[in-house]
Structures are given as C-alpha cells and as structure tokens.
C-alpha cells in the first residue's frame, strides 16, 4: 500500500491537472479561425437570415467591414424572434436553446469572438463538475469521479469543442445532467427529481434532437433494471419522457414541416467516404483516440490518407487497446446496473448512426461531433479501470506504476489540448477551407486603402473579415458587370475568385492579374493597372 503522503500527492497532482484543463478552455479563445459554422451561429444571433445576407451583400457595392459585421452582431436585448425564425426557416435541424443563450450572453457582454466562444467554454467547465457528481452517484467512488473529471478536463477532443461557438458543449452538459438526474430519480424516487429529469429531457432535445437517442437508451436501462416489469418506476420514466417530448413538440413540428430542407442541409452526411467502410472504421478509431491524444496536424493532411497511416497508428493502436480493455474490465468488475448504464450510454447515441451508415451508407457515425456523449462514456470506462487498479493493487510498486501511467495519460491529453488551442485552425474547423488564410492575411493587412473583390460564398468572406484590418473594403459579386474598378483604392485583390471572375479581369486590356504568393493553387490574386 502506498503511504498517505503519496496518496495525497497523487490526488494533488490530479486536482492540479483538472485546474490546468479548465484554464486551457479559457485561453486563446480568439486565436483560432472563426470558421463557417461559427459564422452561422453569429448570423442566428444577429436575427438575420442567410437569404437577406446574400440579397444585400452581393449587389456589387463597396462594403466596409462594419457593413459585413452587421450580420454577425446583435444589439442589447435584441428581439429573439429573429433568431428562432432564422433557424426554423434555414436550419431547422438545430433547435434554438443554445443560440438564444448566446444571444443573451453577447447582449450582456459584447459581440467579440472571445465573448461568443466563452459561453461554450463555461458549459464545458460546468460539465466537468457535473461529471464528478454523476460518477459519485453511479460508482460511489471518489477516485472514479476524480479521474473521470481529470480525463474530461484534459481531453483535447472536448477542449477543441469547448472553444467553438456551437451547441456541442451545451449538448454534453445536458446529456450529463440527464444521466445524473435519472440516477438520482431512481435512487430517491420522489416527484422533485423526476420533474428535474423531465426538464433535462426538454433541455437536451432543445439543444440537439440526437438527445432522444440518449433518452431512449435510458429507458432501456430503466426497463432492464426493473426486470422488465411495468411498475411505478417504469411509469414515472415514461411520464418524464412524454413530458419531455411534449415540451419539444413545437420544434418537432417545425422539423417535420421542414424535413426536405433539413435533408438538403445535411445531405453531405449521406455521402460515403472515398475509401468506403475502412475509412469509416478508421474515423471511429481516430475520434476515440482524439479524446485522449491529438497531435495529428503536426504534419498530417486534412483527410484520411491510406498511404500515410503511421502518424495515426502510433496513437490509435495503444488508445484503442486501452479503451477496449477498460470496457471489458468495467463489465467484468462492476455491478450489472453500473456497466449496463455505461454501455447503454455509449451505444444509444453511436449505434443508430452506425446502423444508418452501414445500411444506408454515409458518414454520420464518422462525424466526431455527433457522438460526443458516447466518447465520454468510453472515457469513464478508462477512469473506472484506472481507479479500480489504484484501489485494489496491493503491491506498492504496481500502484506507483499505475499512478505514473494515469498521470502520463492526463499529461499527454493536457499537452495536446494546449497545442490544439494555440493553433490557427484544427481538424474540427474544416481546414481545407482556410489553410491558406495564414499566408493571405499578412499580405492584405500590410497594405492600406485596399479593396477585396470576390464571388466566394459569404461565410468564407465573413471568416476572412474577422482577421483582416477593419479599414479593408469589400466588393462581393455574383458576376462582375462593371467595366472599371472602383476609384480611390491603392490596392485591389481577388480572393478565391471563380474561374469566370478571374478571366474577366485577365481579359481586360488595362488590368494585370498575378498571384499574391507562390502556390500551386493560390487563393489571393493582385489586380494591377497597366
């Protein structure tokens, strides 16, 4: 057995790691590119629709940065109806809870990137503490609770999503709250806890419709726990579920009405990976690995490359073994009610998407953000395995070895998190859309009195505007119909022009178009008068 001093030192190190995991969520919030999905978040917060943006911006007029940012900001306590209407009309697959909370948040504290993203960071931090309460409820073990909290705190996967102005951190929080309140309701069996559980169902569904999978998995657990008897506990669960679904019914009606629009918006998820099933499985393992370690953009491309697997395999193989063994260890050593809850938690979100991909084709289950709750269930399994080993190991040297191993796992995750947080973009930002921007931004920003011309999609331009000097002007066009460039500018740039737009300027006798930097496919071109 270890001495009390060594136990206290180990716990102190774990607490210190948790604190660092919380700190990393709050650092560099304005460092990473404000990418497409986040631009759409700010659009919803502003109360405008994408249709209005396209109509008002692509008329060929010269626009200031303020003209663009108008569609990314909200006034103090601006009417929330515009946010709900924009989502219902154009993105009905996204319920409004998160976006309304962001609207309130930025109305109180400002429209900056840091403020907008900070709400997700706060949700993620709260999730760490709720996870502690959940693990105490399920395992009745302080060690499991502390280690689960530590693994979540330093997980590069969850840190990445905690620094993104999207609903994912809130979804993780509502999922944890729902699981915790269900366990409390089953143990205490009073009206207050069952009502709170019903409330978590409503909050979860208004954050992500995928929460229904989790709630149905909880129902399977309750039914099996009660030995398939239709007793009062089962009835109370069903009543809570019905209340939750009824509370969500207004938005559920919108989802049904806008089904074809949703199908069009999410059609990309029905497309198979280029390398088929093997790439889908690869993404399952890679996403699991990312919950513990993530350095892949050190020298990795932005997509699956079968000819360069080594950078992934050196992490995927040991992490996959650790996770697989931990799930086995959980099932072998914990009570049936404990391992059944965790397995159903993991499977309830993952299995429907995996089944859909295998039967219908697609990449739903390979999309990391769709399985956030499932990955946390796997992390909890690892925490249980480590904590049980630390508790039951008699040999002092074995216990010290497990302590060192646990600290190393946390340390690697922490280093990964700090590294990912410091980068201009990461895998979750769809880097193929922005990877040349670090070269482009200094070229434009070092000029004065400049005009950027483009027929690129508005969200790409909006992303660019967040990093460019506020005195840069823009001209967005569907087709360039003007014979001459606007006067009073010293510098003219073409940003990601279509072939047609670029040729329009190349064909003009009084203009010369050349690449702004060396590249096989440059995104920025300089227009000069001859």
TrEMBL record:
Keyword Membrane attached: yes
Bilayer topology annotation: Multi-pass membrane protein
Record carries keyword Transmembrane helix: yes
InterPro entries: LipidA_mod_glycosyltrf_83 (IPR050297), RgtA/B/C-like (IPR038731)
Biological process terms in GO annotation: lipopolysaccharide biosynthetic process
Domain Glycosyltransferase RgtA/B/C/D-like: start-end pairs: 95-253
UniProt organism field: Crocosphaera chwakensis CCY0110
Compartment(s) where it occurs, according to its Swiss-Prot or TrEMBL record: Cell membrane
One function term, GO molecular function aspect: pentosyltransferase activity
Main location: membrane
GO cellular component, one term: plasma membrane
Stated name of the protein: Glycosyltransferase RgtA/B/C/D-like domain-containing protein
